[in-house]
Amino acid sequence: MITTGSRRRGLAILAATLLLSTAALLPAAAQYYPPGPPGNGVVISDDGLVLPVREIRDDGYVVTTTCWNEGTVTGGTYISHVEVVIDPGHGGSETGAVGSNGLTEKALNLDVSELLIEELRDRGFNAMMTRTTDVRIPIVVRAEIARALKPDVFISLHHNGGATARSELPGTETYHQIEGANSKRLAGILFEELQGAFSQYDVAWRKTVFQGASSVLRVEVQDDLYGILQYTPGIATVITEAAYLSTPAEARLLADPEVQKVEAVAIADGIERYLTTTDPGSGFNPMFSTSRKLSAGGPGGCRDPELGDLGVDEPGFDDVPEGAHRAGIETLRNEGILAGTECGPDLFCPTQRIKRWMMAVWLVRALDGADPAPVTESRFADASADRWWMPYVERLAELGVTSGCATSPARFCPYGLVTRGEMASFLARAFVLPSSLTSGFTDTAGSVHADAIDAVVAAGLTRGCWVLPPRYCPGANTTKGQMATRLARALDLVPRDPIYGDR
After folding, report:
1. Of 278, 289, 262, 104, nearest to 172 (Cα)?
2. If pLDDT is split at 50, 70 and 90, which confidence band does 293 have?
């Protein structure tokens, strides 16, 4: 459920007008709370509070506090962008639904969200949560966090209450933005994944008329009913309600950590499908509407917690060990090249495989020494101009370093993984490396990247993947750590002719 402790009761539909009893709907704010400006990243305290940044100053940050006030802080860990933001619904005094076994929705939402973040990072996605502790956060602040981080995906994760009608299938519900085609597609995909994952369990399921992927119009404002959807235009935002915590059998199921993991994997599967395929999703309902106000989720009565010690944002990452790639990662971080490509607070995830959009960001910053100007159009059909990384992709194409991954129509494949062969071509074009004698690898003959491979090896940017026989492994993926080292060598920030291999 979306806000404070309400449950769905007495669902009723007036079929002729599609006006719904709002007592039966997910509750949202009773009045419109206009979100602040888009924001400029977030700063995270040592206590785990996520504060959207309104202004960056020399001596700290002007932030939106947890309860939608303005504050000034110093220190903390700053994050400018992530690919995915997960919003564990409820928290603090807002418990959400409560199962007959005492399981609270706020705790369940957080537990599943933590598993989901871990799953996403394991798959190579950069992700973080709106809350990491049991704290109350008004909907408008949750939306400001997302707007400040400019993610490709924003999911508000919930579990439901109030259904009484029996169902052969789980009563899974997802909610999407009325005007958001991307939001709708994501909601349909997530509905498929979640309902499919829960259908394996033999449970006396409950459902309501909202089973499926839905949108709800608030007649008074002619906009999305739910603030989390209304306040995040331009972001693919979806609310998930995997199952009904108010049903005893479902509550017992949801209390199982293994089932929570299944839910997290299902949502991760949906996110990955959304970002890497053109799947349309399914389960879409006609738009519902309501003319009544809802009563919770706003900042009224919210008291800001003590910020405590925000801590000092020490240089370096907590997950980069001593070894072959640490020097390259640290030098690129100090140059500002890695900003926005961290996988979480103080985390770089050096073993994650690097994606094409991330390669574009790094290379453009390395070549131009600055961030590009915003763009209003994209030459690539699969890379929207409103994505924060799109100006880097456009600039990389202007520089002649990339022509995309396909034609008719032109596509960039932003979430495609960069192979070792592609990495060589990117670097050879970007730094205009001269042609070279063959490197003698036994596995590069016939590769479209063979000349580039010879050039980057001759330049001392990389070695092969194996010695006897000498192989380069052009089809293997490149990790973030490996790419950081190669780029730092190309910029002469660390020595070339590596001591360590890239195996």
Report:
1. 262
2. low
Concatenated DSSP letters of 256-283:
-HHHHHHHHHHHHHHHHHHHH-------
Could you give the CA distance from residue 107 to residue 103 in angstroms, rounded to a whole number? 7
Q: What angle do CA 53, 268, 184 make, to 5 degrees?
A: 75
CA–CA separation, 357 and 474 (whole Å): 20
Q: What is the mean pLDDT of residues 32-42?
A: 80
pLDDT of amino acid 314: 67
Task: Name 450's Cβ contacts closer than 8 Å, sequence gap at least 6.
Answer: 444
Residues in the chain, total: 503
Terminal-to-terminal C-alpha distance of the chain: 48
Q: How far apart are CA 493 and CA 25, in angstroms?
A: 57
Is cis: bond before 469, omega within 30 of 0?
yes
Q: Enumerate residues 6+ apart whose C-beta is below 8 A from 162.
A: 7, 8, 9, 11, 24, 97, 208, 244, 246
406 Cβ neighbours under 8 A, 6+ residues apart: 413
Q: Is residue 381 a contact partner of residue 410, using CB atoms and an 8 Å limit?
A: yes
Residues 20, 23, 28: CA angle, nearest 5 degrees: 95
Domain boundaries, the chain: 13-290, 417-503
Are 251 and 102 in contact by the 8 Å Cβ rule? The answer is: no
pLDDT per position as a tens digit, 77-116: 899 999 999 999 999 999 999 999 999 999 999 999 999 9
Closest CA to 97 of 8, 180, 173: 8
Reduce the DSSP state of residue 251 to 3 states and report it.
helix
pTM of the model: 0.89
Single-letter amino acid code for the residue at 45: S
C-alpha angle 425/427/428, rounded to 5°?
A: 65
Chain-centre distance of CA 143, in angstroms?
14
DSSP reduced 3-state for 413 = coil
Bond from prior residue into 409 cis (ω within 30 degrees of 0) = yes
Q: Nearest to residue 337, comparing CAs of 345, 346, 349, 328? A: 328
Whether 165 and 207 have beta carbons less than 8 Å apart is answered as: yes
State the CATH architecture for 13-290: 3-Layer(aba) Sandwich (3.40)
CA 26 to chain centre: 24
Residue 61 near residue 43, CB atoms below 8 Å = yes
Q: Are 230 and 224 in contact (CB under 8 A)?
A: yes
**If you search the block for the tokens 């970007």, which residue do you land on?**
430
- Which residue reads 């519902």 in tokens? 288
Report yes or no: 492 and 358 within 8 Å, Cβ to Cβ: no
